[in-house]
Amino acid sequence: MSWQQVGRESDIAVRDMKSFVIQGEAITVYHLDEGWYATSDICTHQDCSLSEGDIEGEEIVCWCHGGAFDIKSGRATRMPCTVPVEAFQVQIRDGWIEVDLS
């Protein structure tokens, strides 16, 4: 595993998200009620930043065209998005958010 520290746990409120660039890759970290998740920040439909969208339940809704992805799995859940975004494991260690890029 290749865990990368991205920020403090206190940096992201519950039901919020924040984007980071990790090893040249744009990643969005989400803090949902039941835990922490991360996906690629780039919508597979038209290269828009997902971190500029809205969290609805367990989905991230892209601001460009209203397509959506499951935050936990990266699965495309709403048209026009059909190709999933990559999802990454997240852990909290000593108050720090870490993302596994492997």
CATH superfamily: Rieske [2Fe-2S] iron-sulphur domain
Which consecutive residue ranges, at least 5 long each, have pLDDT under 50?
A: none
Number of domains: 1
The CATH topology corresponds to Rieske Iron-sulfur Protein
The helix fraction, in percent, is: under 10%
Query: Which CATH architecture is right?
Result: 3-layer Sandwich
Separation of termini? 5 Å
**Which H/E pattern describes the elements?**
EEEEEEEEEE
Based on secondary structure, the structural category is: mainly beta
Number of alpha- plus pi-helical segments: 0
Give the averaged pLDDT, no decimals. Answer: 96
Main sheet attributes: strand count, strand direction, barrel closure:
6 strands, antiparallel
Q: How much of the residues is beta strand, in percent? A: over 45%
- The top-level CATH class is Mainly Beta
Tell how many strands the DSSP assignment holds: 10
How large is the radius of gyration? 13 Å
Q: What is the molecular shape?
A: globular
Strand order of the largest sheet: 1-10-9-4-3-2
GO molecular function: 2 iron, 2 sulfur cluster binding; metal ion binding; monooxygenase activity; oxidoreductase activity, acting on paired donors, with incorporation or reduction of molecular oxygen
InterPro entries: Rieske_2Fe-2S, Rieske_2Fe-2S_sf
Cofactor: [2Fe-2S] cluster
Organism: Alicyclobacillus ferrooxydans
